[in-house]
Amino acid sequence: MKRNLTDIISQMTLEEKASLCSGLNMWQTKPVERLGIPSIVMTDGPHGLRKQANPGDMSSKTVPATCFPSGAGLASSWDRELIREVGAAIGEECQQEDVQIILGPAVNIKRSPLCGRNFEYFSEDPFLSSEMGASHVKGVQSQGVGTSVKHFAANNQETLRNSINAVVDERTLNEIYLRSFEGPIIEGDAWTVMCAYNQVNGDYCSENDYLLNQVLKQRWGHGGLVMTDWGAINERVKGLKAGLELEMPYVGPEHDRMIVEAVQSGELEEAVLDEAVRRLLTVIFKGYDGKKEGFTYDAEVHHQLARRAAADCMVLLKNEGSLLPLKPEQSVAVIGAFAKHPRYQGGGSSHITPTRMDAPFDAIAGMSADCAFAPGYLLKGGEADDSLIEEAVKLAQSKDVAVIFAGLPDSFESEGVDRTRLDMPSSHIRLIEAVAAAQPNTVVVLSNGSPVTMPWLPQVQAVLEGYLGGQATGSAAADVLYGKVNPSGKLAETFPVRLEQTPAFLNFPGGKSEVTYGEGLFVGYRYYEAKKEEPLFPFGYGLSYTTFAYEDIRADRTSMKDTDTVNVSVTVRNTGTVAGKEIVQLYVKPLESHVVRPVKELKGFAKVHLQPGEAKTVHFVLDQRAFAYFNTDIHDWFAESGAYDIVAGPSSADTPLSVTLSLESTGIPFRKVGRNTKFYELMAIPETAAFAKEAMEGSLERLKQMGAMFAESMGDDGIAELFEAVVKWRKYDALRSLSGMMGGGTSEADLSKIIDDLNTKLKLNS
């Protein structure tokens, strides 16, 4: 239904406009009944619906809903279509429960594995996180229900999250932390964005003009509304000016009065308020019009989707001697309290009341002819119980195989608190070590929202990373253990050997008021590759019950301009005996750069299903952004001229296929030529290349003449070596060197004229 929003706004009183900028209660927006403006309902997500039965009553219980795998697990599927299906199912459940906006997806980057909310986030890689988030948004919104992409931005820890100032340089902020939001917001067209509690570079996210106005609205063109995380307001009027429309939840009339008084005093232009109201009305009416009255979803269908999703998310980390898949005739000792009381979701605002619950032991009992259970450890507390371990060892010795369900209890990771170590509880570790010593055929199934150390890894035959698999985690684990599902998940984050190895170790979680992102661009695999550090398991890693061969990579061109695209094809074959899915990963690797860059970065991926012996060719299209870095001189993306390897393989640490491409930049990496413009920057631009080459050659001639003064002390060989090093350095020198000792003969007036002429030639404002 079309409405004239300008006309509606013109009929609103100042007080009514201000009132729309805060909620009605905990979960609803305010109505303006005389103008036909309805109230809409929003509620927690993101991996399922967490709705209180009465939105106005904080004490009311949450309604049952399908609990899907959390973000950490879903991202390990690397499956856009699967995540879109899950999103659509969540949207259907929102329709049944009369919810117009679900709060999610959560796309913050996993800067440190210690972040207590990592179970809710997708990845350490911004491209993967962005793609997963976009698919989630498209799925939910296909059902006429809105999403709220969160938490914008740099909300990468729970310690002091309400006040901490994230100090992060502009390039890192854009390449890593903001890049993760682009897909859900631009491609997914998310209705709303939720700002984070923390500060970024000195301004609270709720009143950060750079984030909300300059990036979100101006650069990305977001047309929806920005809401606070619950209670994330700082200064109400300042927030409104910076691009914050909706404060949640309602805290009383005072903040609404602040807006009215700011307009009346001239502190706030009413046009700014009108624009906020226009955005609010756009989303409110979209949600209201999208309602499907009387809609119901099929809980069993959604449960089976949750089961399929959980199985596709699980990552087989180890399988020595092909112990897995298990055979029905093998006797099995099922060990670990998680086998009967699974840890299937994280703690905090995303905690869902599931429609049903599948326990691993029950599912295994339905597939095994002979299985028995021992708890092995207590659900609460981390200390080992010798009697429980002894019982588990005896059971393991009496069976063909021991399957241990272990990981992290609820108390070890939750919204609101960060982890302090990567270790599992000592009760879980001692159990695994004792059982593995007694039973050589030991499998460990992990339930955790983020990486754990594995000192016991050499002692066990197989490890299955189950993450927090949702309400069907038990049946999904059994499906994978018994080969009904061939595991196809791959890690969306690096698993370190130890905490001290992690990129942010020296800077996480910061001091009492700020945290410095000292690792810069080198988050996750970018850090391990640059440092040549070998992690426990690399980004993108995961095994299968079959094998795959990467046979060929081709590009449809060997050179391109940054205004072109290149089509890349990768052929992969199933060389094993069972059908399986492989995740083809494509990375771009700059061979030489004038700025610091990661060794390589993920720029494409595809999940492909292959029968035994079958080969398929996967196609990727790479544009300028695949080769670009964020240039802080022009405050935009810039692809520099040069050679790039495009590599493909099954993980970040294994990329056997490679093709080289030469890229020619048509952009200008600076806003105007100045004294500090580099020779190499001018040489990369056709209009100024000849000048730069001539100027640098003249400078080098002067260097040769001056070399004589060192010849006596260094000899000819020493001079040659020194000159070679200096020449390489001079490549980076700035224009101002023309008037210095090394350049010789160029006056300040001459330099100013040269700069003016160059700007004129490039049509830049000097």
Automatic annotation (TrEMBL):
This is Beta-glucosidase. Pfam families: Fn3-like, Glyco_hydro_3, Glyco_hydro_3_C. It comes from the Bacteria. The lineage of its organism: Bacteria, Bacillati, Bacillota, Bacilli, Bacillales. It is an enzyme of class 3 (hydrolase). Belongs to the glycosyl hydrolase 3 family. One of its GO terms (molecular function) is beta-glucosidase activity. Residues 582-652 form the Fibronectin type III-like domain. Its EC number is 3.2.1.21. Keywords: Carbohydrate metabolism, Glycosidase, Hydrolase.
